[in-house]
């Protein structure tokens, strides 16, 4: 279509926003009618706004207690000391720290990253580390080099919303596999891989957050780690292990990354966003040697190099500050908040309905709460916001429309008092919903049937395609056991709610 | 292929690097045999190391005068003041400046970016600016949202090596259009677009660096700017205008960006890498309103948000320092270096061979030098490195294997004395080559026929595909006029060498 054709769409004398000439006279406003629409790549059509972004504009109002965000609490960082480091760095060696750098990341930082990973038991060489713009970019680059449109990635049910966005943007299908309190269920993973491969789907990798899962709050049990690694090897599928919270555990339990015992079949993703600060945007991939080179090429094409100033600042911080003690300070701070949330949930929820269930995280930022059958956390969200409390509906964490009975509650950012107040408000909203249900029964238009109820043991593969906008209600999913547990349920395999 | 199959490749008792078990015993080393090779995405096969990267390991040795790099000279930056800004920023408001931020970029920085663009005559609204991880990421995101594999982008001949890498990584074909001393030649652009569209190719955009071109050193003449904009509109092709050097002009000539007069059909890419510092990795896209939203979604998927600390630091710098005076300091500094290079070229090259030609940049970082017919700058490179001078062979700046007779000489980083010494060394190398030619004739195995000699007026489209590894010598290119000029050539339309 030429510019002349464009004008044919316009009645003579009219001045639509999309016409070339009129738009040129209104600099900076662009066109209201998107004339670029027919020109986008196929992948652009699968880029849609996440539920979380739409929510945050409201959730960030001061009167709202936000249990929605994933922002770390930076109040405990030694900001004066970090500021001095930055000043010294720029005044003393700004000609290096403000210059272009290596696409792979600064060598001295990559050495220090190996020291950080050694805390979890990973033995690695700096040459196999690629620094990225947060671990989000690590996900982007790994997907970029491995996934063609139509490929499949296996992920936990639920999974990290930002990873699902990446997979969708590369037109990659996602097959969810259920978790329970001990994380991903190995036999269901095996079933899923077998069924997908039998159906001829190209499964590229398992994407997993085995430790202090976002959003589920659970961790993969040690024996399951060995099982999951073995199953992936048997199916010739590698593992992308995302571990942003691994060092933020609340007790003495050591969660050994899968990468520590399987260096050849695991790509390990790390981040300084939760152990230092997200505004630096520094994460990394530890990859088998051959893969590392492709990642560097992808990184150079994407950004030339990750931010040098950030890399030097974190490097100096790790070299000069007692970063391990700082992580212990963070752990205590987040544990206190986790406790505030769990205590409030135990105090208030069982009286509302005995089937309200939630996970008990041993670290990290999140509790995953599931409402009784027939309730809908997404439909309830506007009423929660009216009651000045925000959470993220579980549907954000599924590629296939499931999760509407659940919600993610984060305890990372508000103070313990605000968390208690937030849970009180949330309890009020849930109580009102259950009261309405009791009064009008399950046929009330407000009470939607949760699609999670359709779950059954899966024989056929269930893949949410990257390009598919709406979930297909006919599909079945891998897994029958809900990945949630009532805090006070003695049947649960994990620790009871404090 | 299962892990068991893997082992079948291994003779009993042997211990190849690729076997699962043995690799697991050698943590951190990965495998030498890349078992990931069959798993890469199609696009990964077109990701290959640029000629520049391979060169830089050698070129960065202190004994080598590098005329190869594109690193700005940061010595003139007020590093103490910038260091103090960083310290205040982190100590005073680290809870914001080290936190997650908006995927579109910090609102106050986007306002300031509009002030910067206003210097060149662009009127824009902060809402239409998307901050990126350097303008390299801007290129990546624009290509990501617009280009499917097999689409075509039109670019100057030569073009920016980093853009060609992005296009290749998205499997996008590149059709080069010739320049002369006044930049891109409009009638050849028109011919190319007509031929490509007649051949059914989907041309997505013109990628152009109209001002102080990298690597050619030329600028698009004012009347041609109008012509180029009109031709693109007529063919319903939009323009991606890359303008990292626009403020670094050496005289009073104002180069008005295409975007200033065509807000609806131009995506404008800017950067702080050359006017402040590249280590912050902050660039931006100014896009028509509808496109902006897609870019933000792509940005969130790629990195969540650009580095906040960098954004706040640049914002504070723009707010508190006299940044326009600082740019004038940069201009003077680069002009002195440009003059050192041009003076040395004029002094030494004509005596070696009357057909050595080079461009006279009015700003920016680069001179483009073309050797006499039959000579090969790429083949000469090892001998230049032996003589302790580095440049980038012209072939790096073509998607199709052309450019071997040319080289990019940068004057941005070495001191004027080093530049003069570098040109002296280069002159010695070129003289030795021409002496060999004179002695043995053009049939010497050292003297390759340059593919640029195959140029002819093009009827059929000539597209270098992203996925194609080697150039096809049978293709013809759009354009007959070489984009180079002898410094002392009175025939040239531009100013004579100083």
Describe what you observe in this structure.
- 2 copies of one chain form a homodimer.
- The model of chain A is unreliable at 1-32, 443-461 and 467-498 (pLDDT under 50).
- Helix content of chain A is 40%, strand content 12%.
- The first copy, chain A, has an 8-stranded mixed beta sheet with strand order 2-9-8-7-6-3-4-5, with helices on both faces. Chain A has a 4-stranded antiparallel beta sheet with strand order 10-11-14-13. A two-stranded parallel sheet of chain A has the order 1-12.
- The longest helix of chain A has 30 residues, at 323-352.
- In chain A, β10 and β11 (366-370) form a beta hairpin.
- In chain A, α4 packs across α12, α6 (134-146) packs parallel to α7 (161-169) and α6 (134-146) crosses α11 (289-303).
- Chain A is built from 15 helices and 14 strands.
- By secondary structure, the first copy, chain A, is of the alpha/beta class.
- Chain A is globular and about 70 Å long.
- Chains A and B meet through α1, α2, α4, α6 and α7 of A and α1, α2, α4, α6 and α7 of B.
Could you write a compact summary of the structure shown?
The structure is a homodimer of 498-residue chains. Chain A is of the alpha/beta class and 498 residues long.
What's the SSE blueprint?
Two copies of one chain form a homodimer.
Chain A: H1 3-8, H2 20-25, H3 51-59, E1 65-66, H4 79-97, H5 107-118, E2 129-133, H6 134-146, E3 152-157, H7 161-169, E4 173-180, E5 183-184, H8 186-198, E6 203-208, H9 222-234, E7 238-242, H10 258-261, E8 266-271, E9 282-286, H11 289-303, H12 308-320, H13 323-352, E10 357-358, E11 366-370, H14 377-386, E12 389-390, E13 392-393, E14 406-410, H15 416-440
Parallel strand pairs in A: 1-12, 3-4, 3-6, 6-7, 7-8
Antiparallel strand pairs in A: 2-9, 4-5, 8-9, 10-11, 11-14, 13-14
């Amino acid at each position: 279509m030429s510019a002349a054709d464009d004008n044919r769409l316009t009645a003579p004398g009219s001045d639509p926003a999309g016409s070339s000439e009129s738009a040129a006279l209104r600099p900076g406003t662009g066109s209201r009618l998107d004339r670029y629409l027919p020109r986008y790549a196929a992948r652009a059509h699968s880029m849609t706004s996440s539920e979380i972004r739409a929510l945050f504009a409201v959730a960030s109002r001061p009167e709202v207690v936000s249990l929605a965000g994933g922002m770390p609490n930076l109040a405990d960082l030694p900001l004066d000391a970090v500021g001095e480091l930055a000043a010294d760095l720029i005044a003393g060696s700004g000609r290096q720290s403000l210059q272009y750098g290596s696409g792979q990341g600064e060598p001295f930082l990559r050495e220090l990253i190996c020291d950080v990973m050694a805390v979890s038991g990973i033995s690695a060489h700096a040459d196999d580390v690629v620094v990225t713009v947060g671990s989000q970019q690590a996900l982007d680059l790994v997907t970029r080099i491995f996934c063609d449109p139509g490929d499949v990635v296996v992920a936990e049910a639920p999974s990290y919303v930002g990873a699902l966005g990446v997979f969708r943007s590369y037109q990659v299908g996602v097959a969810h596999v259920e978790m329970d309190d001990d994380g991903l269920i190995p036999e269901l993973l095996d079933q899923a891989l077998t069924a997908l491969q039998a159906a001829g789907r190209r499964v590229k990798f398992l994407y997993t957050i085995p430790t202090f899962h976002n959003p589920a709050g659970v961790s993969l049990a040690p024996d399951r780690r060995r099982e999951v690694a073995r199953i992936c090897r048997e199916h010739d599928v590698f593992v992308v292990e995302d571990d942003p919270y691994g060092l933020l555990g609340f007790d003495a339990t050591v969660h050994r990354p899968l990468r520590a015992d399987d260096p050849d079949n695991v790509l390990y993703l790390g981040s300084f966003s939760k152990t230092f600060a997200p505004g630096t945007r520094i994460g990394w991939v530890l990859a088998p040697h051959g893969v590392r080179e492709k990642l560097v090429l992808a990184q150079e094409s994407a950004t030339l190099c990750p931010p040098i100033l950030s890399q030097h600042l974190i490097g100096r911080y790790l070299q000069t500050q007692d970063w391990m003690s700082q992580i212990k300070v963070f752990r205590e701070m987040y544990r206190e908040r986790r406790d505030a949330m769990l205590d409030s949930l135990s105090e208030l929820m069982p009286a509302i309905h005995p089937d309200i269930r939630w996970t008990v995280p041993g670290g990290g930022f999140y509790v995953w709460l599931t409402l009784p059958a027939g309730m809908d956390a997404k439909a309830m969200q506007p009423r929660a916001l009216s009651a000045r409390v925000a959470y993220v509906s579980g549907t954000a964490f599924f590629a296939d429309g499931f999760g509407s009975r659940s919600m993610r509650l984060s305890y990372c950012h508000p103070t313990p008092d605000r968390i208690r107040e937030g849970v009180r408000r949330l309890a009020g909203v849930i109580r009102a919903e259950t009261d309405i249900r009791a009064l009008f029964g399950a046929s009330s238009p407000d009470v939607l049937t949760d699609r999670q109820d359709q779950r059954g043991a899966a024989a056929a593969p269930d893949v949410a395609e990257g390009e598919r906008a709406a979930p297909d209600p006919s599909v079945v999913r891998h897994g029958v056991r809900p990945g949630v547990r009532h805090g006070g349920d003695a049947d649960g395999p994990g620790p009871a709610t404090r």
